[in-house]
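#dry-run=false #mode=assembly
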Amino acid sequence: MTKQRKLVLDIVENSCNHLTAEEVFFKAKEEMPNIALGTVYRNLNILVDEGLLRRLTIAGHPDRFDNTRIEHEHLICKNCGKLSDFRIEGIKEKLKEASQENVQSYELNAYYICEDCCNQEVM
Amino acid sequence: MTKQRKLVLDIVENSCNHLTAEEVFFKAKEEMPNIALGTVYRNLNILVDEGLLRRLTIAGHPDRFDNTRIEHEHLICKNCGKLSDFRIEGIKEKLKEASQENVQSYELNAYYICEDCCNQEVM
DNA sequence: ATCAAGAATAGGAATTATTCCTAAAATAAA
DNA sequence: TTTATTTTAGGAATAATTCCTATTCTTGAT
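#status=ok
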């Protein structure tokens, strides 16, 4: 655990948003001005592999990163991309049961149109 | 519904695999040798927006496309990327309930290590 | 059918997110 | 402390996808 990796982990864990690699990079630069973008990407990948962070992949958008302390699902506005969290109890067990496999992790994204976009009529 | 769009739709609907845009493109070329890759992408996007196809986004892999006739979830090997389907009854209703929003679509990917990869020891 | 208007296409350039490469620096091991 | 291993910074390369433009299709009204 190098200091760069620790920094990346801290930034993601202490952010209430779901940050992109680039956002993590800019925050990291505030503390370590010459950290490289590649380093951020590499460490994010390592941290995800180790299970310390979760990756959130949404079509057409860059990946976002999330802490793993509380399992949760994501609700995404189809129109503006706004992202929020919600929970479904016991989903992981359901997945294991339904798939008959040892599910290690999962990603559950629900798409809707948020209120703001609904009210804009034109889309 | 142009003939290009119809062809793209037919290819995805009549394939039991989950095809990438490029795979759709090569299949489409067999019927229409000078269809353009951009046309395939554009039409896949339109068909997804119209709800006629589903998009399947997996981190680090190109998007895949799926027919929508039967709602189903995806089981993905973390190691080799092997992809299979499974079902969870009534998940969409659960999502609406849990999120308190009008969920229009969702994507549920479960990750595991497939038997082949398990047996290979080295990963 | 003929024509005009709008939409879709082919082909290729451009963009974007991400990974890969390499030499230098840091860390760990002996 | 010397050696071996890992990681880094910086930038080039890659891959998937979108964007651009001139041309071709459709379509619907006359």
